Amino acid sequence: MMRSTAGRAGLAQRARIVLLAAEGESNTRIADRTGLSRPTVIDWRKRYERSGLQGLEDEPRSGRPRHIDHAKIVAETLKPPPKKLGVTHWSSRLMASRLGIGNATVARAWRDYGVQPWRAETFKFSTDPELVAKVTDVVGLYLAPPENAIVLCVDEKSQIQALDRTQKMLPMQPGFPERRTHDYVRHGTSTLFAALEVATGNITAACKPRHRHQGVPGVPQAGRPGLPRRRLWNRAASGDGQLRSPQAGRGPGLASR
Questions:
Q1: Considering only CA atoms, which of 156, 164, 218, 155 is closest in space to residue 188?
Q2: What whole-number distance in Å separates Cα of residue 122 and Cα of residue 113?
Q3: Which of 253, 210, 223, 208 is nearest to 235 (CA)?
Q4: Is residue 38 located within the same domain as residue 149?
Q5: How many angstroms separate the CA atoms of 102 and 256, rounded?
Q6: Whose CA, among 48, 79, 180, 198, lies 20 to 30 Å from 96?
Q7: What is the pTM assigned to this prediction?
């Protein structure tokens, strides 16, 4: 409780009082270390002795009860923002403006229900029957690479594409952020292959109309005409499975992940 980053600061301070008391510290010493008054320390110790951890919680406050329904705020948050706002998810200020309340109230409701509209995670249920074999091959390349071979890690980092996810997005729910698959389906793109020469910092690039394994070996060759041609040993597929070459042979040369 005292080390939690999600809990309230006051609750952590009360837990510290209890821990210091368990270590044999006097009430005066605890007050000095926590920055509280001695009567406050005594009061929280008594409440802990009487009710345990429940005694460290805030008691119901006096006055008019809260009339803002946190469940309603969360229900509105789970709905997508109007297109006219030009945003993909709600912020506390946008939601507060829509409901006519303070953004701090919206933030408290989100915190109580564990709603985080700004977060998105990925998920994937693999249907590839060769998944275990591919993972074993990739790990094996790093643990025991072939003799006289260079291991190349090939991945994609293009974000400007017309893409669809392979499965429907799972919407945000209380306690769970929005989730989407990490793989996707392309809709008309031009693939940019690029190779970085670590020793010199030179980058060689080539645009190809299709995303195929044949385009990978030609990129370093285009930038270095004197570079001897080697056989590409493709041991596993990339994330979308389109770079796997069934004719990839064994032998010295380049080993691609």
A1: 164
A2: 21
A3: 253
A4: no
A5: 54
A6: 180
A7: 0.37
Q: Do 141 and 237 belong together in one domain?
A: yes
Q: Which of the pair, 186 or 222, is modelled with greater confidence?
A: 186
- State how many domains the chain has: 3
Task: Report yes or no on 203 lying in a domain.
Answer: yes
Give the pair of three-digit tokens for residue 81: 């923002």
Residue 124 lies in a domain: no
158 with 213, same domain: the answer is yes
pLDDT at 36 over 80: yes
For the beta carbon of residue 92, count every other beta carbon within 10 angstroms: 20
| Residue 73: predicted pLDDT | 92
Do 26 and 82 belong together in one domain? no
**Which residues span the domain enclosing 148?**
131-256
34 with 111, same domain: the answer is: no
Residue 1 is predicted with a pLDDT of 52
Q: Indicate whether 252 and 163 sit together in one domain.
A: yes
pLDDT digits (tens, 9 = 90+) for 53-97: 888 887 776 766 667 888 899 999 999 899 898 888 899 999 999
> What stretches of the chain show up as alpha helix (H) in DSSP?
9-22, 27-34, 38-51, 70-77, 92-99, 103-113, 131-143, 215-223
